[in-house]
Amino acid sequence: MSAVSTLKITTRTLELAELGADSPLPSVQPLLEPPYTVGAGIPEEISAGVRWGKVSNIYPYPMQESYSRETRATELTAVVLENEHLKATFLPQLGGRLWELTDKATGKELLHTQEKIQFANLALRNAWFAGGIEYNIGTRGHSPTTCVPLHTAIVRTPEGQEILRMWEFDRLREVVFQIDAWLPADSNVVLVAVRIRNPNDKTVPMYWWSNAAVPQSPDTRVIAPATHAYATDYDGSMTRVDTTNFHGADATWPVRNSQAADFFFDIAPEERRWEVAADADGDGLALISSAQLRGRKLFVWGEGAGGHRWQEWLSPSDSGEPRRYAEIQAGLAQTQFEHVPMPAGASWQWVEAYGNAALDPALAAGDWGAAVAHGAQRVEALVSERSIANALSDAGRWADLPPSEMVVAGNGWGALERVRRHHSTTDWIDEAGTPFGVETLTADQAPWLELLNANEGIVEKPFEASSGEAPSQPFAGAESFVRGLDWEDLLTAGRNSSAEGAFHHAVMVHARASTSAGDQSVVAALYRTALEGTFVAGADLSARSRSLAHRGLGLALIASGDVAGGLAELRAACGVDPSCRELLVEAMAMALDNAEPAVALEVLSRAPESLASLGRVRFLEATALAALGEDAAAAAILTAGLEVADLREGVNSISDLWTQVCPGQDVPAEYQFSMQ
To answer: Is this model's pTM higher than 0.85 or not?
Structure first.
């Protein structure tokens, strides 16, 4: 019987945490990134990539931080690719995650998954979940699209191959990315082609890493064709190391790492790009690609209490049995600290392949050189270099084929971007293969679409009140946020001048401003104009915009050195919208960061009980009490039990507070999140 490959659109019911609504706060705050240093002996190419391309914040994306630890059975769209060798299940509504990859010959699941999908604070927008293969674009960190639906369709090629296509407009770098997945009938690997297109008239810093979570047992070993790696501990340093002798242990066995660490394998240019995680039987995921995806990484949580606690936190199990995992990853750069210059108008494409390496277990567990040589042979047998080249050629021919059947709709920002570029006469992509349909536009984009259409791309000089000319199309406001100088020009044009327009203009300037006191003073003045200015249209700010304007003003004042004035504005923001969790948490955190615990408690005293009882808020309360010398009251909160759903990775604040207010008592296991 001839080999058969199928693509099936179905559903998958999983225990899923409620993600909650996006944060209403514009993301103008700096990214929370642990400090790191590039040590001696690191090549200049890496050092230069580390210095260049960082973003100051994730704006215009809103944060996703309203999730809880409660899960419920949720039906999700799933797309299953299957042949006689493999079964691959993708979840388009969760960032296009390849959730499961089953090797039929052994019955083994090559990826780490779990019974429940639980969000935690590890991504650029906060919410992230463990498991499967995740696709990350834009800047260092888990992608802004990792927990949201991607545009998804089925494409049928002239040769009869069915392709799963997922795509989206990345609002951070203003590029379009596309993921095409297919499984040939006789293939032992799933093929995934990634394409990124830069329609801008300038070079943009680019970042891409495909992260695969793999099951970790005491016998798991990760192999890549390199003798050394660039390693980062959680002490913030990057050094070049012998991976088989790291802190006295062979770190290629994840279980032998006492602490969390990253290892970026230093693979020679002439070597094939591959990485394998092999278990006691030699089975495990092989992550192989064409040459453009040059980087390979091993991430381990470490065998400390914190590493174990994080894995239990991310992969909760009803059975109580611990589910350990490591990650093998592939990226555009040598390390994840770098960005790669993507020229104006460029289109990049590469192919990734995933399958069972099926190594000889004795060779995989033996001498490193022999293990690498054997791994290279098995990788070539699994999918030859020529096969990868042929797949890349096929992907190029198929990339612009139009969808045959739509499956899932992504967001409407790509459709809005097309209209914006039409009005500004700037280049855009050919949408034949990746359409951003008008049907995807929602209330999030509606005010901005109206602003574009009302002005027909014409931008006037800012309106002068003394001229007596009333604006004909005052901007009525929006609950979403955009960025770009052309948007700013439209908002400050005479016909659109309004308090709401002034507020959104202030937010956009805030998002792109430097941290200098001078820039922050300019930002503060813009927020004051929105709050206090007189506009011919006569409409005041909505209560929502007024609270956010006070908040933005407060942040700008604190950044420029006026802590007292800034905290007063944050208190005012909470007063306008006392039911906003995000405003309360930020105001309390900023007060604590600026050594004003009494202010944190004052803000809390005015909050409704529904917010005051939240785990995050209770922890901030305990921190404030401890700072005021009220250790017994702080200890009472901790000993009663506290669960902070969005605890940040690498933050040791709960265990540190326990040690301070409960001296002599061991830190409870549920509070041990330290990665060191």
So the answer is: yes
